[in-house]
Design a protein that fits this description.
By secondary structure, the protein is an alpha/beta fold. It folds into 2 domains: 148 residues, Aspartate Aminotransferase, domain 1, CATH 3.90.1150; 260 residues, Type I PLP-dependent aspartate aminotransferase-like (Major domain) (Aspartate Aminotransferase, domain 2), CATH 3.40.640. The chain contains 12 helices and 16 strands. The strands form 3 sheets. Strands 4-10-9-8-7-5-6 form a 7-stranded mixed sheet, sandwiched between helices. Strands 11, 12, 13, 15 and 16 form a 5-stranded antiparallel sheet that branches. Helix 3 packs parallel to helix 9. The longest helix has 18 residues. The protein binds pyridoxal-5'-phosphate (PLP). The site of pyridoxal-5'-phosphate has 17 residues, from helix 4.
């Protein structure tokens, strides 16, 4: 009897290893914004931010291959490329952030950010939102709300209500920035009273995992004022919005107009090669280096650095940030024109789109689950987010253009028209 792929995977990897979709997709090849499965079926990738400059971009592939054929070592020798990269990357950052620790995953970068906040403040209290994901290390998973930690959440962690477009904190979109800040202030007071003190807040500037909040200049100003008043650090998780995805700016925090103390990056930075980084001002970095001995065998090795540099080359050379702004505006027009009675909101943060569906007062969770499966069957890779998992999530590679936007919008309207 032929063993199914799912059985083989479970036998070798254990149960409950996440895959997307009821019928998981078995991919074998990618190019630009397109993916192919083992049967030869072609999909338009409307979801994957890791392949930021397009699947298998030849410039990145060549850079990896050339460096792998020249030298790859661990990171405790001198090598130019990692320095070239940090110099070039930090030139895109404002706010005095000019140094980096290179790691391999966004989770590790966020783990370091938490430790930087501890090193600077000497405190351990930390705040995040109550509907988020920042990674999978023991410390960072305390801030990730997908599953409750065994033994309960650590007492030095406070989760504040995430902002929301349809059910805004404080009762209105206008009141939401202050209401969010008020909740942060209350959480800080609790942490102080409990004896942990306040080390910082970790947040994604577009609240991507929370359900996506369109970047609005000044939205976080009241929160930043509270954090500054109480001596904590702002740990800005740019794993999703960074590298031009928001279109208007290279970084999400610049779109909102606030100054983080620490910036973490990962997924898109080397177009799929596993590398990430925690970026900080020199004073923050010095406090961290003083408090913790730290090295990372693979983080920023010569091949990773070559992949990072090549990805930056493509973002700049192909004008992908401005292309993101153009495609975003075009696709938003098309998404706003979609017709279906359950559509409650259509929103964007550059090349990141959400279409939220509600049924009466309730999230249309099952409806969106079925819509996603239908779209995948039609050859469109996408998914869903939000507290009720009722928001269609589209976050394609940055090479996704007007032609692809039309294909997606036409297919979505066709799928919606059947239900
Ligand atoms: C906002 C955010 N931060 C951090 C991470 C963790 O990154 P990694 O999976 O590379 O550890 C993720 C992963 O989904 C993420 O969405």
């Amino acid at each position: 009897m032929t063993q199914s792929f799912a059985e083989r995977r479970a036998r070798l990897m254990g149960p409950n290893v996440p895959t997307f979709y009821e019928t998981p997709v078995h991919l074998v090849r990618g190019e630009g914004a397109w993916l192919w499965d083992a049967s030869g079926k072609r999909y338009l990738d409307c979801y994957n931010n890791v392949a930021h400059v397009g699947h298998c971009h030849p410039h990145v592939v060549q850079a990896i291959a050339t460096q792998a054929a020249t030298l790859n070592t661990h990171t405790r020798y001198y090598h130019d490329l990692v320095l070239d990269y940090i110099e070039r990357l930090t030139a895109t950052l404002n706010h005095g952030i000019s140094q980096a620790i290179m790691v391999c995953t966004g989770s590790e970068a966020n783990d370091l950010a938490l430790r930087m906040a501890q090193a600077v403040t000497g405190k351990t209290g930390i705040i995040a939102t109550d509907n988020t994901y920042h990674g999978n290390t023991a410390a960072v998973s305390q801030l990730s709300t997908r599953r409750p930690p065994i033994g309960g959440r650590a007492p030095n962690v406070r989760l504040v209500p995430a902002p929301d477009v349809l059910r805004p904190l404080g009762g209105s979109l206008a009141a939401q920035p202050q209401a969010f800040a008020d909740n942060v202030a209350a959480a800080i007071a609790e942490l102080e009273a409990a004896g942990f003190g306040f080390s910082g807040i970790m947040l994604c500037p577009v609240f991507a995992n929370e359900g996506l909040l369109p970047p609005e200049k000044g939205f976080l100003d009241p929160t930043v004022a509270v954090v500054r008043r109480d001596g904590g650090l702002i740990l800005c998780d740019e794993v999703q919005p960074g590298f031009g995805r928001v279109g208007s700016h290279f970084w999400g925090h610049d779109a909102l107009g606030f100054a983080p103390d620490v910036v973490t990056i990962g997924k898109p930075m080397a177009n799929g090669h596993p590398v990430a980084a925690c970026l900080a001002r020199p004073d923050v970095m010095a406090a961290f280096r003083e408090a913790f001995g730290y090295f990372n065998t693979f983080g920023g090795n010569p091949v990773s650095a070559a992949a990072c540099l090549a990805t930056l080359d493509v973002i700049e050379g192909e004008g992908l940030q401005s292309r993101a702004a153009e495609t975003s505006a075009y696709l938003m027009d098309r998404l706003r024109a979609l017709r279906h009675p359950l559509i409650a909101d259509v929103r964007t943060a550059g090349m990141f789109f959400g279409v939220e569906f509600v049924q009466g007062d309730l999230p249309a969770t099952a409806f969106v689950a079925e819509l996603v499966e239908d779209m995948v069957a039609r050859g469109f890779i996408l998914n869903r987010i939000g507290r009720g998992a009722n928001t269609l999530k589209m976050r394609p590679p940055m090479v996704f253009g007007i032609a692809e936007a039309d294909l997606l919008a036409d297919a979505l309207q066709a799928a919606l028209s059947t239900r």
